[in-house]
C-alpha cells in the first residue's frame, strides 16, 4: 500500500495490539470478534507492513476493545 503516512498506520497497529493484549484477546479470538481473519490482524498489527483499515473496521475494533476510536488514532 502506498501512503504518505506509513508511520501513522504502524502506530495505529501498535495501539490496536496494545489494547487487544490489555483486553486479554489473542489475535485469533480478536479476529473472530471483529469478523476478520487472523492474517488481517497480523498485517494491521505488524510493523513491517502498512495495512489500511476501513472506518467501519476501526469502529468495530474500538467497540470490541472498549476504547474510543479517537484513542486509537491519537498521536502520543
Explained architecture:
- By secondary structure, the chain is mainly alpha-helical.
- The protein has one domain (6-69): 434 Repressor (Amino-terminal Domain) (Orthogonal Bundle).
- It has helices spanning 6-22, 27-34, 38-45, 55-65, 69-73.
- Helix 2 (27-34) packs across helix 3 (38-45).
- The longest helix is centred in the first third of the chain and has 17 residues, at 6-22.
- The radius of gyration is 11 Å and the shape is globular.
- The model has no long low-confidence stretch (mean pLDDT 95).
Sequence-ordered SSE layout with sheet pairings:
Blueprint: H1 6-22, H2 27-34, H3 38-45, H4 55-65, H5 69-73
Descriptive key words:
434 Repressor (Amino-terminal Domain), 64% helix, mainly alpha, 76 residues, globular, 0% strand, single chain
Rg for CA atoms? 11 Å
Supply the CATH superfamily name. lambda repressor-like DNA-binding domains
Strand content: under 5%
| H and E order | HHHHH
CATH topology: 434 Repressor (Amino-terminal Domain)
* Average pLDDT for all residues: 95
Poorly predicted residue ranges: none
**Count, helices:** 5
Helicity level: 55-70%
Inertia-based shape? globular
CATH class: Mainly Alpha
Quick take:
This protein has 76 residues and is mostly helical.
